[in-house]
Amino acid sequence: MPDGIVCCLVVGSVIVVTDLGELVLSPGERVRGVDVGSVMFSLDWAGEDYPGRLAAFVASRVRALGAESADIDTSVVDRAAETDPPVRRGDVPVRQLDQLSGVLADLRCTLMVWENGIDTYEVLVALTGESELTGLMHQGFPVRAWGSEPEVALVSLDCPDCSQMLVWELSADQTLADERCDCGAVLFDATGRPLPHVTLHD
Fold it and tell me: How many CA within 13 A on the CB side of residue 2?
C-alpha cells in the first residue's frame, strides 16, 4: 500500500484500520514522519519509577491529538493503594491503566497497549470517537484497546537449552504442538502444552 493511504473499514461500530499512525499521531506528526514508537510510554509491570509520569504522558498525548485533557490523573489509584488491603506486586499499574481507560473513553480517546511479548505495558493513546478498533499492528505485533480481549494470543519463552527468546502469535485455532527451538530443543508436547522444563513468560 502506498505511503499516506489508510485502509479503513467500518463494520457496525468496529473500525478496522491498517495504519496505526492515523489514530495515534496528530496530523502535524504524520506530516513530519514521526514514528509511532516515539509516542509510546513504557510502564514496568511492577509500577512507575516516577509517580505521575504515566498520567502526564496520557495528558500530553490527548492534547497533541486535539482533545480536552482535564482530569487525567492516577493519584486516586495511588491513594487507594495506601488505604486498601495490601495489593500484590503489579496490581497498581493495572488499576492505573483501568482508571485511565475510563477517563479517556469520556474524551473520545482509547488507551491502547502494544503486545510485543515483553513484561512492560507499552501504552499508546488513540483518538477513536466511540468506535472499537481491531486489526491494528506495530512492527508485527498486535495493538489493542486496554481491557479488550486479545484477537491473538502471544506466547513467549526463553529456550531452556540455548536461552534464545522465542515469541509466537497464535489465533484461536492454532497450537504449538511439537514446536521446537531452532537449536532443536523440544518445547511443547503433541497437544501444544509446554513440557515440564519449559517456563512461559507471564
Answer: 2
